[in-house]
Design brief:
By secondary structure, the protein is mainly alpha-helical. Helices cover about 30% and strands about 5% of the residues. It has five helices and two strands. A two-stranded antiparallel ribbon has the order 1-2.
């Protein structure tokens, strides 16, 4: 990281910024293409306390109905961590595969100058 920061500093000091276009497709929403553990909702466990909605960082859970707006959900799993009654969770078998790298779609980090 220090090496990368040094290269950036060199470019800034030279005062000759170069325009560049990073590779890739800016139209692709990578966050939605990642393989994520499927959500599970157990209505019989839900007490309607609303903790999941209060703690949702993107506001994807409607506080009145507690339904998830999939277009806003970033799959952070915070709702499952704050639910004391295990009403919201994620399929742990798929999550385990993801953690172990079997479902990973990560690319190596590349820096462009």
């Amino acid at each position: 990281m220090a090496e990368f920061a040094g290269k950036i500093q060199e470019k800034l000091n030279a005062k000759t910024p170069e325009a560049f276009t990073p590779e890739g497709n800016p139209e692709v929403d990578w966050a939605k293409e990642l393989s994520v553990a499927p959500k599970e909702y157990r209505a019989e466990n839900c007490t309607q306390c609303g903790e999941c909605a209060k703690n949702c960082s993107t506001g994807a859970i409607d506080p009145g109905t507690l339904e998830i707006n999939e277009a806003m959900c970033i799959h952070c799993q915070r709702c499952s961590f704050v639910c004391q009654f295990n009403a919201r969770s994620y399929d742990t078998s798929v999550k385990r595969e993801f953690i172990e790298g079997n479902l990973s779609v990560k690319k190596p980090v590349e820096y462009f100058l």
